[in-house]
Amino acid sequence: MTLSGLMPAGAPSPLAGITAAAPADGLRVMGLDLSLTSTGVCLPDGSTARIKTRQKDGDRRILQVRDYVRAAIAAQRPHLAVIEDLPKHAMAAGLTARVHGPVVCELLDAGVPYAYVVPATLKSFACDHGSADKSRMAAAAYLAAGAEFAGDPGGDQCDAWWLRAAGHEHYGEPLFELPAAQIARLSKVSWPELVAGGVR
After folding, report:
1. Strands in 43-197 per DSSP E
2. Which has the closest alpha carbon to 38: 104, 99, 83, 120?
3. CA 168, CA 80: separation in Å to the nearest integer?
4. Model pLDDT, residue 16
5. 134-147 pLDDT tens trace
């Protein structure tokens, strides 16, 4: 039995099969700093957004984030998503994990490979300091590419921007120059192999 508006169990997502390996005109990478309260997104064109949810909406906030990511995948057709990994030993990790599952399901259904980058590695890549704070991350983005992030008090858009940059750097399409020692920090990430039709 199928309820109206729902896909049957096991049916492919309407987004399935829209992605492939990077074409000659360049890699399309999406950066995602997922959170139940304030998710940072960097789209493949380099623009950033913040998905701010209201606590009173409870778990429906998960749907808001999922729906935004679903629409972004359909519109932008990324070849790769780079996600900030859950912080270890953090009290808020359980809440953040609620968002990760549905978002990863959207990526899997659409055939978009993804990589997780832990916060310390992202900060070391951006600032050569694994404990860099939000202001230092923003300053590094400005120095690297003149990037600024309006309305980003928690640095969520900035983090998503750096996640996208990390993906470009690893796959040989750097967006700007960084010291070799900072680039080397990305070797700690388990990167997927991009192949036609998905990930191997």
Report:
1. 48-52, 80-84, 114-117, 194-195
2. 99
3. 9
4. 37
5. 999 999 999 999 99
